[in-house]
Amino acid sequence: xxxxCTSAKGGVGxxxxxxxxxxILAGDNTTLLIDGDxxxxxxxxxxxxxxxxxxxxxxxxxxHTRNFEHIVFDTPARPSRDxxxxxxxxxxxxxxxxxxxxxxxxxxxxxxxxxxxLNCNCYRLLLTIIPSRRTGEQTREALAEFPLFKQSIRQYAxxxxxxxxxxxxxxxxxxxxxVAWSDYxxxxxxxxx
Length: 193
Ligand code: ADP
Prior knowledge:
- By secondary structure, the protein is of the alpha/beta class.
- The protein is about 45% helix and about 15% strand.
- The chain is built from eight helices and six strands, in the order βαβαβαβαβαβααα.
- The protein has helices at about 15-25, 40-50, 60-65, 80-90, 100-115, 135-140, 160-165, 175-190; strands at about 1-5, 30-35, 55, 70-75, 95-100, 125.
- A six-stranded parallel β-sheet has the order 3-2-4-1-5-6, with helices on both faces.
- The longest helix has 16 residues, at about 100-115.
- It is globular, with a radius of gyration of 16 Å.
- The protein binds adenosine-5'-diphosphate.
- Adenosine-5'-diphosphate binds near residues 11, 41, 128 and 160.
- Adenosine-5'-diphosphate binds near residues 7, 10, 155 and 156.
């Protein structure tokens, strides 16, 4: 399966989602994470510690792709219309993380307009960095007409610790590490069904 994570705006948990989705898909299969973000956040994450799947730079990805069952592609934020068209063409599932603030939602809705104009039916919005149940429900209602994952990703400081340590969120010392990981586990089940 080829899963692409892109976002209309930076700082919405795109790389964090790409890393954890790759980890879920890597459960039984070989999974490659391609880092196409100019910040190289996923590459740096992997270099700081130990992730249970391979991470490669976009520029060297072509050589690696044939050996993997699943590929997760972390793209630059704010893709142009042409980039979006190419991304849609090149994946099975396009995931667009969106935080519950109005700037992120506005930017996401512009991307959704482009996707609809491209007749794309392989995209899904993922609500991320959700600070409270109430905010999650309100955002879900506001976006109800669009394809949304049932699972949202809640806000936990454990993710920062995971990025810092170069590991997955379930491996950090934090009282919310397991519950944070459970969000991506449930998301993974949705992705695979
Ligand atoms: P992007 O790739 O969209 O720029 P990142 O994945 O780099 O976003 O995340 C931006 C910041 O938000 C980072 O500091 C990251 O640790 C933090 N973050 C990401 N997801 C969560 C979450 N679910 N809860 C709390 N902080 C998060």
